[in-house]
Task: structure prediction
Amino acid sequence: MSTEPQSGAAAKGEQPRPARDLKRGGRVRTASSEGRWASMLVAPSLIMLAIVIVYPVITAVFTSFQKDPGVDKATGMFVAGGFAGFANYTHWILQQCTATSGGTVPCPPGTLGAQFWSSVGTTFFFTVVTVVLETLIGFGMAVIMARAFRGRGLLRAAVLVPWAIPTAVTAKLFFFIFAFQGIVNKVFGTSILWTGSEWPARWGIVVADVWKTTPFMALLILAGLQIIPGDVYEAAKVDGVTIWQRFVHITLPLVRPALMVAILFRTLDALRMYDLPAIMTGGANNTTTLSILVVQQIRAGFNSAAALSSITFLTIFMVAFIFVRFLGVNAVETTTAIKKGTAK
Amino acid sequence: MTTTTASRVGTADPRAKAKAKNRKRWASARTYISAAVIVIWCLLPAYWMVVTSFRDVGFTYDATPFFSHVTLDNYTTAFSTQMGNHFGQALVNSLIIGTATTVIALLVGVSAAYALARLEFRGKYLVLGFILAASMFPGVALVTPLFQLFTNLDWIGTYQALIIPDISFVLPLTIYILVSFFREMPWELEESARIDGCTKSQAFRKIIMPLAAPGIFTTAILAFISAWNEFLIASQLSNDVTQPVTVAIASFTGSQPHQEPYTAVMAAGTIVTIPLVIMVLIFQRQIVAGLTAGAVK
Result:
């Protein structure tokens, strides 16, 4: 800190030229040493992520191609497993379960294997419904939060409360709110067993998720709204543009990059939904998401659990790819755009 | 915004002026009403949790909208170990896991974030993309291999079995938020220090670190909260001794076998939530900046 005034004088005062030249020359000359320095700084993080993510994932992929160890039906001998080909994948996708006599049969209803496609459906149902609701409500919240009025601080603080509550606690809280004798049935005079049948349970989970994560969505959209310069609206207003036209032709296009990144984040998050349904219904009544199914399968056989978790991972990866490739969401570039704006 | 049109029209016609004023007043009333609706919607369930947590267990389903039948019993019940709950221990566990994860993620992540924010090197965007992808990686894809691995290592029921998986999502988050904080810092000071003869690492330690402290602190809060809130992995890789609060609350058992001890659960939920809410309210501005970091600016 104490060096600042001196260096300022050196840069601005007696010798401005040499200082700048030194800076520029230094940068070119040390390009390769800067690269080495950078890789030294980045390496520990990358190594750590390789250990905690890449290594387990490779193990999982490897296990997913292994047979479960067990007694060979033909010989009566215990076998260690071995290469299974895509058997663990076809088990889920094509619903091929191992029959007691050997060979494969369609998975009988009630088994974990038979729940695959319904859990895919449930996962996508939750994802589409919650993301659409959270985007619409979040947009509305963000528009209100962007306005200048007294008490805006209170609004922004209140919005952070649902976000701060752990999802596990949110699940228990809404389990209580939706209990048979709970407040929802009392207030609306209904007597619905909310967590006891398919659609009430699903909507209960949707409500809990929307309550918990809409604020996050709203904050991301708000950040996008705030970069729109106010004079754009002024100009449009002077030109007699209606509110709706302003929204469609100014707000939406300008907020689109931020909005798409927010939707991408939320979609990927919703696709791995676990806490709320696992605690509120335990996956009963067709609320089993892919994540719940994987967890249930872990204790019923590692290899097919590994295959299922790989399927889940690939599904999420594909959705992310579609967002980035076809909808033009570029989270990395959005971040680098900041750099270009401020580093100068 | 309405003032420009209002004043322009107003100079010509006083009636139009009054009309515009009315419209403006109506618009601000609408803003206040919408804001009130949002505040109530966000706070009501949390309020209900707190109210229930102070309510006598015999009046669990009482619908009185304000505090009634107030008692502290539920808080005693929450901490009682008689029913096989280990809530007190779980609080300590969550603190240990959250703190360890945050410290490790910061120690490792700060230097990476500095390099990504500040230095030009080949493969930079690849690294950024990888870290972004890692932050969205589904925890469920880790839980199967880690369960197998930790069972073989006999690590189930140890703290490292919970800290290591948490790093998988806390570290990318940490780097990601730090990068955007670092990009907004006055880096000219670093250049000045360099011209004055500081080495790169001296400039980093003596000039940059003190300036970066607020951003690092905010990142630490966000990292801690995300580790504190983790449930999926912990529910599979912990046991009664190491389980964090989220798992403890989810598996809370009461005196009656098929009856949820709602009031005690709400008390436990309140205890877990209050520190977070206080932190969030104090550091509201920084946390919002950190949360929206990277997405837009």
